[in-house]
Amino acid sequence: MDRLRIRGGNVLRGVVDISGAKNAALPQIAAALLNPNPVELTNLPAVRDVDTMLTLASFHNAEVDKGIGRVVITTKDLSQQETPYDTVRRMRATVLVLAPLLARCGHAKVSLPGGCAIGARPVNMHIHALEMLGAEIALERGTIVASAPNGLRGARVVLPGPSVGATAATMMAGTTAKGETEILNAAREPEIADLAAFLRAMGARIEGEGTHRILVSGDTSWRAARHHCIPDRIEAGTYAVAAAITGGELELLNARLEHLASVVQVLETMGVEVWPSDRGMVVARRGPLTGADVTTEPYPGFPTDLQAQFMALATCAEGASLIRETVFENRFMHLPELCRLGAEIKLQGPSALIRGKTELFGTSVMATDLRASVSLVLAGLAAEGETVVNRIYHLDRGYEQLDDKLRRCGADIERLTA
């Protein structure tokens, strides 16, 4: 099993090419199953989660022609066989195929993603939304069984919370429903706006993305399409922290400053400089870091997917920082591993109190999930001595060539293959 060995203390300087957004690519691959015509997606990141979703599309009889950073998906005859658990257990986003399979075929069977249940977030919001559109849904031995014997029909769907996955599912299903679908309390993330742009390119009629109210007209006439995925704002935020935690300067190519307003606000509060460039944005730290309080919220609030990275940064800042997690209840699994590196962090319910300016010392740590993994890498960049991050297959799910990109900017980092 691969590991990363990091020798900390190097200042990062240079240019990082930000890849396409994984969280935009996954629902777009699922949405391609709605369309019998060829669709091309470009700027796809070379990460394991994208490969998993493409494998799932192939399982349902999609022709997948994959190149470097691009894929052409053609699904003339969609297979209706049950989505296998062996595939969906690898990531929760695979539940996104439920809506397009149901919308196009009239019925679908999708194994529950690992660790999820109907009553647990986020799957219940998908179910609620599809039922509002006329679907009949049951749980049979760990499988979601959905049917729409009379077809899907447009309706007003009020989501219990601004779930990105449920908003995406409702948008996809609404494109084939009879009449208009109104989504209230919709997620506002850039990835949702990018999905709307992709659906429109294929012939759908959608408006209101980026607001809490999205309108989708049904009975879509599908056409061949090409779409370029947006850059990954979470990857950009991660490298921004890498520049800040090492006291360096990085230009993040293709990064969109407008997608990172809440993140930039916190960085600047902590003493980090951020400005736009002709090619993206630049992040630099020239002085000491100052602690800051952070509360994760749905977009345009501070993203939960950057919480772990900012916790690592807070350990190197003067004074105390308080990070409050409001999106996911189990998002502090990186805390014990950061403490192994010397961090002083106290958990108080949904909040973590970080005592800053602690001396970090390299040691062996264990990655537990995607964002927790990269927080340990960031801490290792600032730690004295050698840090070994184990179980980095989590990193490969969502970061394209992380070690290579860091090494090109001056990091002493090496991938070890067992």
Automatic annotation (TrEMBL):
It is found in: Cytoplasm. GO terms for biological process: cell division; cell wall organization; peptidoglycan biosynthetic process; regulation of cell shape; UDP-N-acetylgalactosamine biosynthetic process. It comes from the Bacteria. SUPFAM superfamilies: EPT/RTPC-like (SSF55205). The keyword Phosphoprotein does not apply. Transmembrane segments: none annotated. UDP-N-acetyl-alpha-D-glucosamine binds at residues 92, 305, 327. Cell wall formation. Adds enolpyruvyl to UDP-N-acetylglucosamine. This is UDP-N-acetylglucosamine 1-carboxyvinyltransferase. It comes from Roseibium album. The lineage of its organism: Bacteria, Pseudomonadati, Pseudomonadota, Alphaproteobacteria, Hyphomicrobiales.
